[in-house]
Amino acid sequence: MKNCGAILFALASAAVIFGFKGTAVAAASLADMSFFLLTGLILLGILVSSKFFYKKHRVKLFNHFASNQQNKNEMNRPTSQRGADRKYLIGQVVYDKVRPGQTLIIKRIASSLYYCQPAESCKNRLLAYFERDLMATEF
Predict the structure, then answer these.
(1) Helix, strand, or coil (residue 93)
(2) What one-character DSSP code corresponds to residue 84?
(3) What mean pLDDT is reported for the chain?
(4) CA–CA distance from 69 to each of 86, 92, 111, 130 (Å)?
């Protein structure tokens, strides 16, 4: 595409020098269109590639950020108060308030989010819940 634009530009310059006005205008307009098409494709490629990069690595980046933030918050608190404001602990069995029949096991805690894995699920998929969405006993 880049070479095509350069060739059309050279053709338009040569046509102007030799007096072929119609050929020069046609070649220049084709070169102009190829320039804008190339620019649009480059911008589209940048947007698409950044979206794929973000999607591919966002879980890894979020986990890294959440664990660092949790460690910072815990270390800034006095030793007697660390983990004292949490209602549930890692490994505890809890239930969803919306679906009380679903048994959840708390796998990780980050700030105010509890990452739970359904007990009957064999996948490593974690569901995020706020403390207000969980209950300790089944109805």
Answers:
(1) strand
(2) T
(3) 76
(4) 16, 23, 8, 17
